[in-house]
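User: I'm writing a short methods note and want a consistent example. For Pilin, I'll paste the sequence; you return only the structure tokens, no commentary, since I'll be parsing the reply automatically.
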Amino acid sequence: MDSKRPKCLQGFTLIELMIVVSIIGILSSIAVPVYKNYLLKAEANAVMSLLRSLQTNIDLEILETGSFPSQLSTIASPEQIRDMGELHLENINRENGDIRFVINSDAYLKNKTITFTRSSTGWRCTHNTEQKLKGCESQQSQQISQQ
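Assistant:
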């Protein structure tokens, strides 16, 4: 008897299939965290973009009325903000104040805040997310530098 397999019965062995499955598992264990980090960074950057556009609107409102706005409706449409989180305007004095945004749309960024503070020297950004946001200082690093 011929010990070779007939040509019509050729296929993949169990070992070959197990190797392919393990390679796919290794690749997905690398890709999933990278993709999650990409989504978090994209969401945080979308919030930053929204808040930067509100900075311009606030500066225009201060030029027109002479005071920091206290109502969201004077600087933006509440509908465009509601999906991403809650925006709070805090008037510190006549021309200075905070734009504080609490993110509520993603489980990993839920209840994290990004705050833009307007003072006589300009705008300053702080946040408590684990992301590195361009032009925005982490509140954890700010607390360390104050100690």
